[in-house]
C-alpha cells in the first residue's frame, strides 16, 4: 500500500445514504428548472441564434451547481452521517440551491454580458440603483448562507470525530475544509458590504470580488497541503517499527 493510499480519507459512506440520494435528485431537479427557465423552443433561426447566446451563462451556472453537489457528495461519502442534524443541514442546502437557481443564472448572464460588451444578453433589466443593489445583495447573502452551511456540515462531522473514529490526518483534512469555506464566507461578507454601501456603478464590484476566491482558496489549499505533508511525516516517524 502506497503512502498516498494509506493516508487517504476512509469513505465511511461508500453506499449512497438516503439523504445523499435526495440531495442528488434535488440538484438534478434544480438544473432541470434552469433549462425550463431558458424559454420556449426557437421558432426561427434568428431566435435559435439568440438562444445560443444563453449557453455560456447556462454552462457556468450548471458548473457551479455541480460543484456544490459534488462537495456535498464528498462530505456524505467521507462521513456517512444520516442523523437529524445532517438531514437538516442537507435539506437547508437544497432550499438554498432551489431559491437561488434563478438569481444565479441572472448573475451569470450579467457577467457574460459585461465581459462580452453586450454580445451575450441578460434577460433582466435594471431601472434604478435600488434594483441593482438588491440583486447583488440577494446573491451575496445566498452565497454566504451556502458557505456557512458547508462550514456547519464539516464542523458537525469534526464534532463526531470520536464516533467516526477519525484519524489524525482525517481530522486535519476536515479542519482544512472548514477553513476553506470560512475564507469563502469572508469573501461573501465583503461582497455583501460592498453591495449595501457602494454607490452607482461601484456596486458591481460586489460581484467582481468573488474572483478573489480563486487565488485565496488555491493559496490556502497549497498551504494546508504542505502542512499535511509535515503531519504525515510526523505520523510515520512516530509509528512503531515492525
Mean pLDDT rating: 86
Shape: globular
The count of helical stretches stands at 10
Q: How many strand elements?
A: 0
User: Helix and strand succession?
Assistant: HHHHHHHHHH
What is the percent of helical residues? over 70%
Could you list the spans in which at least 5 consecutive residues all have pLDDT below 50? none
What would you say this structure looks like, in words?
The protein is mainly α and 242 residues long. The chain is built from ten helices and no strands. The protein has helices spanning 3-6, 18-36, 45-52, 55-79, 84-115, 129-159, 161-164, 168-197, 205-208, 213-238. Helix 4 runs antiparallel to helix 5 and helix 5 (84-115) packs antiparallel against helix 6. The two termini are 15 Å apart.
Furnish the topology, listing elements before pairings:
Elements: H1 3-6, H2 18-36, H3 45-52, H4 55-79, H5 84-115, H6 129-159, H7 161-164, H8 168-197, H9 205-208, H10 213-238
Which features would summarize this protein structure in a list?
242 residues; mainly alpha; 10 helices; 0% strand
Amino acid at each position: 500500500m502506497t503512502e498516498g493510499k494509506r493516508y487517504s480519507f476512509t469513505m465511511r459512506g461508500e453506499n449512497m445514504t438516503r439523504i445523499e440520494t435526495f440531495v442528488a435528485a434535488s440538484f438534478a431537479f434544480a438544473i432541470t428548472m434552469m433549462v425550463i427557465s431558458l424559454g420556449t423552443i426557437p421558432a426561427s433561426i434568428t431566435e435559435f441564434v439568440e438562444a445560443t447566446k444563453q449557453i455560456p451563462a447556462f454552462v457556468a451556472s450548471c458548473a457551479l451547481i455541480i460543484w456544490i453537489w459534488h462537495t456535498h457528495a464528498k462530505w456524505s461519502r467521507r462521513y456517512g452521517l444520516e442523523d437529524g442534524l445532517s438531514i437538516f443541514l442537507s435539506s437547508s442546502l437544497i432550499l438554498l440551491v432551489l431559491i437561488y437557481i434563478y438569481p444565479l443564472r441572472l448573475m451569470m448572464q450579467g457577467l457574460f454580458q459585461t465581459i462580452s460588451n453586450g454580445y451575450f444578453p441578460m434577460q433582466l433589466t435594471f431601472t434604478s440603483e435600488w434594483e441593482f443593489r438588491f440583486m447583488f445583495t440577494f446573491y451575496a447573502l445566498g452565497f454566504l448562507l451556502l458557505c456557512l452551511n458547508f462550514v456547519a456540515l464539516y464542523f458537525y462531522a469534526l464534532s463526531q470525530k470520536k464516533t467516526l473514529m477519525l484519524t489524525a490526518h482525517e481530522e486535519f483534512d476536515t479542519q482544512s475544509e472548514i477553513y476553506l469555506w470560512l475564507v469563502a464566507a469572508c469573501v461573501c461578507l465583503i461582497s455583501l458590504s460592498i453591495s449595501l454601501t457602494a454607490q452607482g456603478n461601484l456596486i458591481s464590484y460586489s460581484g467582481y470580488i468573488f474572483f478573489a476566491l480563486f487565488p485565496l482558496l488555491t493559496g490556502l489549499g497549497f498551504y494546508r497541503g504542505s502542512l499535511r505533508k509535515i503531519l504525515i511525516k510526523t505520523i510515520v516517524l512516530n509509528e512503531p517499527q515492525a
